[in-house]
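quick one before i forget lol
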Amino acid sequence: MTDPVDTPVGPILITGAGGGVGVGLAESLLSAGCRDLLFHYRRRGDALLELLASHDLDPEKVTVRGELRDEADVAAMHGKIADHHGALFGLINLAGSSSNGMSWKLSVDQFREVVDSSLLSTFLCCRQFIPEMRDLGRGRIINVSSVVAFEGAAGTSHYAAAKAGVIGFTR
């Protein structure tokens, strides 16, 4: 018998679905037959729109825009999802950004942009959606990091720090 907790009973939200990795993940899930998906974007690109069209999905019904570095915007996004789709079953925190720059040459704003788009956004989304998952006694969260968190690479200290922070937060 299947454990009811392992059977999705609500939509799964993919944050950062408008980016390259997000579109790839969305394509994989849709091709595998997952249909109860919602797609977050900050800037909805043509690739996401084409993907949704190829699967006969109306972007107005399955996408949600939000600035995940802004607490009020995440709360508003949560409210919109709850009003139109009910409680989430799953949350895939994929949103993030990267840039290249040697640590001693980065401005505080450049450092903060990368850390906030990966780590702060993960925290704010989890904080917003975990309470209803706990109340319902169900749900799954996947927080996406990067191998760079473990190995580093020249010019990515801020990205490595952000993704290592996602690992620490998740643990």
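fyi The helical segments are 20-31, 46-54, 59-62, 71-85, 108-136, 148-151, 157-170.
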